[in-house]
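Render this sequence as a predicted structure.
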Amino acid sequence: MNIFSVIISLFLLLTSSTVSASDFNFDTGLALKSDLADKATITSMHKYNNRIVAVGIHGIILTSNDMGSTWIQAEEVPFTNTLTDVQCVSDSQCWAVGHDLTILHSVDGGKNWVIQYNDIDFDAPLLSIHMIDYLNGITVGAFGTSMTTNDGGENWLPTVVTDDAYEPHLNSVYSSYKMKSENGIITHSDLKNYKSIWRKPIIGYYRGHQIISMGPPSSGGIALMQLLQGTANYPIANWGHNSAKTIHLMTELERRVYADRATYLGDPAFVNIPIEELLDSVYNQRRYEGISFDKATPSALVSAGEIPLNESPETTHLSVVDGHGNAVSITTTLNSSFGNKVMVQGAGFFLNNEMDDFSSKPGSPNLYGLIGGEANAIAPNKRMLSSMTPTIVTYNDKLKMVLGTPGGSTIITSVYQTLLNVIDHGMGMQEAVNAKRVHHQWYPDEIRVETDALSNSTQAQLEDLGHRLRMTDKIGRMDCILVLPDGRLEGGADPRGDNTALGY
């Protein structure tokens, strides 16, 4: 059968309600009616027009015609084991799959079901089904199992979708037919050929602390180290947190660092990123020599530093520390809220809009107002530049902090300020996370300032220096952990979002 290709993903939706096995009869071939059926663990559901069909453990199948307000248990289901997925292609034609390589079919919208395929001797479940129409479909499951039909399930034939010798579990299936029908360009080969790459972290030092952060194609680690290098020469602890002099220094550094970001950073597989040069202390000292404490530097007068090159760029964060001192800082993103707002039917994930992180038109701003250059221009198989800055800090070879945040272009400066709050301003973790923030990114030429971050006097001083201020509600959503001197852990969950700090 060559009517479609498949896209495999690793997703399985589960709910957490339970029901006792004693409420069902495993001796017969039928899943018996039960008053507790609507409280059973549901593994999958599918909506077609106004009808929802849900499947779960013990052969439970429920239907709803009022968007889930009320549910009716199916009349006849010849299966008492777990069902894992369900799909309807019309108001009447539905299929469900589950353990024992079982495929069920309904011709009355889920009220009654018959077995189309079953193999109790094969100890593996089917985990997902996708029917293109009432004739053509595919189901996949554990140990690389896959079967297709082109006659509505009268016959299910084994197929091969992976040549992996370890036979990985195939948890979800989605037809490229649907992708093409929506004018999408993603293919099975695109996903098959995508490889995660282990990147070297960016490592630097600030006031005796080792800073370990993310390397390209994220700009976060390089930008953070450049900012810290520029800050290390100044006694900001004496100047005071969010004083006019401290804010002036930070924003002057930021506009120069973001100018370098726009010019030199991109996918290292496509551009030669001068990492050593950008992190060179002599280079950065030269970059910051023009900073005046008498007036702001207009961003129009700031450009990237001169580096000779051989070749002529909504987010979730977790910070974790375990009882053995192992630490993980991880940031992942769809870019903007809900990505491009397209949910892949049957696969359970949103498509991202990370293309916005490329410089689609060098010199023009993206969603976050960031200016990009040719180094981050769009190209086939190229990875876009990001601002993600998951960071680990050590002191005297011992873990000190784990930090990170969502926030688009404000990620870098949020991590930067939180580090300064702890190291320079002597704050605890939660205090450092709570502290009001400011942000500058070269263009637009303005300082974004959280409400109540600065006193009226400080605002006036900055404006007298030539800074343009723009007030905003929230910058960043930090999630951090600080190791206290006695070994205890202090979590910092940002009150700006629905963040949480948990321990055990």
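Summary. The first strand starts at residue 6 and ends at 9. The CA atoms of residues 417 and 437 lie 7 Å apart.
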